Amino acid sequence: MDEIATITIDGKSYNFETFVGTEGERCIDIQHLRDVTGCITLDPGFGSTGSCLSNITFVDGANGILRYRGYPIEELAERASFVEVAYLILYGELPNRTQLLNFRNQIRVHAPIHTNLEHHFSGLPHTAPPMAILSAMLNLVSCFHPEVLEVPTTGEEFGQTASLLLSKVRTVAAFAYRTASGKPINQPNPNLTYCGNFLHMMFSDPYVEYKVSPIIDKAINLFLILHADHEQNCSTTTVRVVGSSRANLFSSVAAGVSALMGPLHGGANVAVIEMLQDIKRSGKPLQYYIDRAKDKKDEFRLMGFGHRVYKNFDPRARILKKHVDEVLGALNLKDELLDIAKELEEHTLKDQYFIERNLYPNVDFYSGLLLRVIGIPLNMYTVLFAIGRMPGWISHWKEMHDHQQRISRPRQIYTGPILRHFQQISDRL
Length: 429
Ligand code: SDX
Hints:
Blueprint: E1 4-9, E2 12-20, E3 26-28, H1 33-37, E4 57-60, E5 65-68, E6 71-72, H2 73-79, H3 82-91, H4 97-109, H5 115-122, H6 130-143, H7 155-180, H8 194-203, H9 214-226, H10 234-243, H11 249-260, H12 268-282, H13 286-294, H14 315-330, H15 336-349, H16 352-356, H17 363-373, H18 381-402
Helix pairs in contact: 2-9, 3-18, 4-7, 6-7, 6-11, 7-8, 7-18, 9-14, 9-17, 9-18, 10-11, 10-18, 11-18, 12-15, 12-17, 14-17
């Protein structure tokens, strides 16, 4: 522990220890604030509240830095595979050749799902949102694996469970898409890569084997790496909170999927495309949308802009923007929505409203454009975000248990009616 922080309440001073993390972030340890002062802190949205100490991911919002276990996102995005990054996030170190081979095999063998589970897909309406299916099915997967209900957070059993989840989330996602599209499901092909197998399960047809293009395989890999973790975001905090009650890993990540679905979080990648399509369709000038985004009376926001932590650029957005251009070039394609997105970014960079509020493109602004270019259907964008975030969710769930964190139970300040007594209906006005 480092410096002391002093809080004075009603003329009485109270000292609290501070703590400095390995990257120089500072906090005041107020775990005993209520015990000694009778007060609690108030921080709706937790903008100034740390929920834990964590060794997994470091985000420096002021300088646009993102590192998984100390490795810069730029290096991992350029040189690693998603399976390597998943291993790094789960175990804290990059795998050696043998470890990677074993990890890949574990994921490979867990790809199929129980045939009884397959039947659930056929009972769903074609309009069922794949994210809703994913959340429900992740809970159901655990019913076919009773051994994972009491998941230890260490050793071989944890590794098997983590690999099982990483593998099956991909199968369930593809099955959800095929079901929602009224198409027959494709069984996983053990001879394909993690991403190649997903693309096969998504797009192969009984009479036409989907040929995985290296450009698309690389684009999916990159997308998943960029989404693999992001410290205490809304869905990861949800996983930790649910897991803190000792709910099993599957129920905890299923809750994470539900939190991710919202348009302010993972659902933003869909909302960005819908916004760009509206802009294109309307033919209105970009300034019309920028003015609406600035108008407090208008609930319209520029989706894909702003971030709770990044008050400078989101490094993921930069990587994605560059990669979308590369993929379009390689496929010799153009995308009008990308042109609109770039122009929108240019406008905001010069607009005081966005400059004063540090509103820059976040990961979701260009990620949907990458998925669109490689042919992923719009209703699967947030599902891919969930597949990418799975290593982060699992690792945070494990870390919360390893640190023996207490059940999450915040306090509140009550502002409702004071004591009053029940009246018979005959006495009520
Ligand atoms: C993700 O947390 C993570 O790490 C998340 C994530 C991850 O990897 O897990 O990075 C993934 O969820 C990225 C964010 C995707 N969401 C969107 O793109 C939705 C659009 N963005 C906003 O709704 C908003 O910026 C949030 C939700 C991202 C952040 O919300 P905050 O931190 O609560 O910010 P705020 O709403 O308090 O906004 C501060 C100011 C306000 O103006 P004032 O009241 O100060 O005048 O900025 C304005 C807001 O009105 N503002 C916007 C805006 N975002 C914020 N104005 C117009 N358009 C926007 N997009």
